[in-house]
Design brief:
By secondary structure, the chain is an alpha+beta fold. It has four helices and twelve strands; from the N terminus they run E-H-H-E-E-E-E-E-E-E-E-E-E-E-H-H. The protein folds into two domains: about 100 residues, SH3 type barrels, CATH 2.30.30; about 80 residues, no CATH class. Helices cover about 25% and strands about 40% of the residues. Helix 1 packs antiparallel against helix 2.
Length: about 210
Amino acid sequence: MISKKIPTVLFLFFLVISSSHLKAQNLELMNASLQLLNSVNSSCNCDCTETLNINSPFFEGQLILKDETVYNGKISINQPYQNKLITILNLDNNYVPIDNDLIKDVIFRRTENENETETKFTNLNSDDRLYRLIFQNESLVRVYDSSNELLDNSLAGRIIIEENNIITDTWNFWSSSPKKDVINYLNNRDNTNYKRRDFESLNDLFAKL
């Protein structure tokens, strides 16, 4: 398991010696990150050395804070940190933890065969997690799932549907799959009785939304 230790004292030292070479917005971000580390340390009554798990995949992309500040770099989202979920931003090999509560959107970008694709994650204000946008139609129905990965034509974990500015958590303990959760939402909304076998693909299912 790969990890990155962030001693608070060394983090402060880094800010002091690097301030002349950092843009003001990067310095503000790192100060906010230091406050996050200190607040977690204070709440758990532990020492000043915390460990960030950087074993999870990082993706090139863009991070947008709720104040519209934008950062570009390698990003890993929804990482457990004490009792929080955080996002880790790699800025020139410096791993900066950011409380998910501060984040509006994260966009992962991948270029393959000269074609660039984007995967968007959004803070829905329902919990600490950033949710992956997997579908949006012209009537502004949006479907999100809980994956931290690039789009891959699959559904993962809890499904959130936003329609007419109403956010619905479709999760059901007794449901067999995320796909079934979407079907249940559709049946409840339209008073239908669709089954899994009625949809060969996710596109077929989303077309009904």
